[in-house]
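Internal ticket #5521
Category: modeling
Description: The requester needs a full-assembly model to guide mutagenesis choices. All entity lines are attached below as received. Residue total reported by intake: 799.
Assigned to: D.W.
Attached entities:
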Amino acid sequence: MEYIALVVGFLIILAGLWAIMTRKNILKIIIGFSLFDTGLHIVMVALAYVNERTAPIIDGTVLAEEAINKVVDPVPQALVLTAIVIGFGVTALMLTYAVRLFKSKGSLEIADFKDAKW
Amino acid sequence: MELFGALITLLGSIILLIAAIGLVRMPDVYNRLQVGTKASTMGTLLSLLGIAIIHPTWAGKLIILILFVLFTNPVSSHVLARASHYINIRISKRTVVDKLKVTDRAFKVGEVKK
Amino acid sequence: MTYIIVSILLGIIMLLMTGIAILHKNMVVAIIAAGVVSLFASVLYLLLAAPDVALTEAAIGSGLSTIIFFYVLNKIRKNNVAE
Amino acid sequence: MINTILTIALALIFLSIAIIIYRFMLGPSSVDRVISFDMMTIASISIIGIISYMSDRVIYLDIATVYGLLSFLAVIIIAKYLEKGL
Amino acid sequence: MLRNSLIFVLVIAVGVIFYSLFTQFDGNDELSDLAQFYAQKENIDKVGSANLVTAVVVTYRGLDTLGEVTILFLTAAIIGFFLKGKLEEGKREVRPSSEILQTAAAVLIPIIIVFGVYIFINGHLTPGGGFQGGAIIASAIILMLLTRPTMPFNHKLFSTIESISGLSFITLGVLGALFAGGFLDNRFIETGTVGELISGGAIPIIYSFVGLKVGAELSNILGDFQEVQNEK
Amino acid sequence: MKNYITIFVILFFVWFLLNNTLQVEVLIVGLIVSALVTTLVGVMLCVKCNVFSDLKYTPKAILNTFIFLAVFFIELVKSNIDVARRVLAPTRPINPGIVEVKTKLKSKFARMLLANSITLTPGTLTIETRGDSFFIHWIDVKDINVEKASNELIRKFEKYLEEIYD
């Protein structure tokens, strides 16, 4: 299962990278970025998975004594949790710039922003 | 008892399948919405109910879930139907009558205002 | 075993939706497709025993992101007739 | 026995998701795609219910509730965008 | 043409790197040393949180959470700064929401808020916590904005909630430093039995403040995006 | 006031079902949270503050609530059989149209319940409300007259809802 998740995550990262570099519309680029983010998170969670184990939460099913043999790694999950929230912040920020660019030029095609090219 | 619950879950998934088939077979947006709303609400309701029968101690959360779906699904399909009427989605040729359009024309309800 | 098949199916759906999100011309469809990718990613997290991440992805990645994209789309819509 | 029946149910739900995706790719208007999105969310709620039974963890059901909320909100915002009421 | 082939080569190169990473990965059968430390019975009892992810987020790596909340705050401030334009006096004409949607929203908003509060108060027992609960509360706010699109958004109220909860969060951290092991240590309140609602020391309180803060910040971001619609 | 008490009771019930336990501290926290949220909704975020103020708490109204629920679930099951028949039949037996019906209900919540029930009953979908007219998409139009369509479609729910609310 974790292998499949890894493959899917890597493929989504590649697709997002390709979208960031080839798409002409700024909104499409932002969509590509958020897909890239999703793929990265899938990869990180898949790396934390331990065979045949369950979620790191103690309740009736998993007791505290046997937790060490029954739960998966909580640390990468905590990291991904923060990463998703930050990813939302970054997406919102990029969309803000998109709105700002639209206000200045009335378009979101990347070809209309040639004067910013170096 | 547990077997009964499992069978109810199976029934729910069959109803979801019927909803999906209806989504493909129906001719226009409104008919798809009809089939989608009714069958998917019932399908989810039954499959969650089945799990609640298998595991009676989980019933609380499942009941909340069922009530939530039962309450929000019709509202969202109503909003969607209203939107698709205002943006003039093509209505099926088999439609016999469209009173709402007639009313709109009669009162000259403009593009945006009320 | 069941979980492996389920994850393969989820993976296929997600890759399909990624393709639609990147290649489709209509922006509304692209955004909905990106939302669907997040949606099924969340189910995949559940299979990978990470319910916390699944909850975050469902609420933020799939919910609020989609909403904010539509606000921006509404803002940049000139007086054109959509669709 | 119960696990077998639930696996069949899971398979049926995935079959219906496949059919819904067919409509998603076909759908002539955006509204059809929104309906497909809504139904995919609803089907995912059932999937999560069955998975939480199979893993024997009641805590997974919280996520299903979030899905219900999510489908409602997303459909409403897209509908309001389409009818220019945002 | 050159550009496209360059991009193609780059994507292929990244793919090759990923392939080699994938072939070197051969599954985990045991926890890493750090995770084993976190999952020991003594440490679970010491921290008192049934959800290990919450334990990591709030106590072991609490400083990271503080930084994250700060980043969100900065993001909200930057978005507010950049989106702000001249508000046109003329009211925008939008199609009013349907009556049924307005009624349904009035019924659902309190229920959604209570669900968000449930998510962050039970952060140490069930999946979820401050960030998720905050996002759900922000969803309730967005539902309110959606049903009345031209209503002005009350930025001041949310900024006040945000500052108060941020201040309380820091205060709790300092209390931890004074009466227990270090900054953001949760054990200055009795940790209790693992699995009860009143347990985990200060974790539920800290997470509630994080939830309120994140909810207010996300609501502010969404409110900015709502307000920008009203310009010209 | 009645409105706020109703909201409070609903919120507390939701809290109880979510936690699914009878421990005292959970219930106390639930009371506090429900009270706080009710105040917040009432004072600051007031959307439409008087949704529940038309509810009646007489025994007759409560009896009618249960009858309404029973009728509603029977109709829900019937509608699914109907949907299955229409979807699976090879000829697709549909005859759709949008008809207008008139309702007597005034209370907002009752109107919303009526619209939801219409949406979930066999072959009908609420599209728009204008004043006391509901515009309904009917998958199998039998009658386009306003009176007859109202009798056919909504009377079965309306008579119970009238008892509960107005």
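Resolution: model delivered.
Comment from assignee: Chain C has three helices and no strands.
Ticket closed.
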